[in-house]
């Protein structure tokens, strides 16, 4: 798995991801500069963790899916596409005993900051926000566990933010990158190269 973290509220969203793709048989990096976050519109991105081919699939099929879509919202169109791709890849994930997660976030057509989370485990497709998100008083926090080390990334990020009390989104993102660097020192599947963005209202 990868490292990706989100800190967001009604005013901003900060996302930080590592850029390593790992060969799970050898546990060595097969790519060290992979993009795990792609903007499908100017303000809406999709990010993926799990199989490396998941994000390119979404990006490749989005234009045709959007053209054929009956949804009035771009976000609904992207969410629907992810559900279809997850359904098509369920048997492959089960065979490989892998999990996948896709995150759709940014600023929607209503001018609202949002983050939708799609999680697919080896047992089947599921969609849940509370399953992977913890909340602090000032913002929502979502951070993925890389899977090969014993660390609660959500809890660690909450502690770092609570201790530092950052007063700007740039300082928040700096803390997210600090956590990534900590994890990269321990995990074989995460590097310290960051893919990061800030979206504000």
Describe what this molecule looks like in 3D:
With 201 residues, the chain is an alpha+beta fold. The protein has a single domain, classed as Aminohydrolase, N-terminal nucleophile (Ntn) domain (Glutamine Phosphoribosylpyrophosphate, subunit 1, domain 1), CATH 3.60.20. The protein is 33% helix and 31% strand. The chain contains five helices and twelve strands. The chain has helices spanning 54-68, 74-88, 90-96, 153-164, 169-186, and strands spanning 4-8, 12-18, 21-23, 28-31, 37-39, 44-49, 100-107, 113-121, 124-126, 133-135, 140-143, 194-200. The chain has a five-stranded antiparallel β-sheet, with helices on one face. Strands 5-6-7-8-9 form a five-stranded antiparallel β-sheet. Strands 3-4 form a two-stranded antiparallel ribbon. A hairpin with a 5-residue loop joins β7 (100-107) and β8 (113-121). α1 (54-68) crosses α2 (74-88) and α4 (153-164) crosses α5 (169-186). The protein is globular, with a radius of gyration of 16 Å. The protein starts with a strand and ends with a strand. 33% of the residues are buried. Residues 122-134 have low confidence and may be disordered.
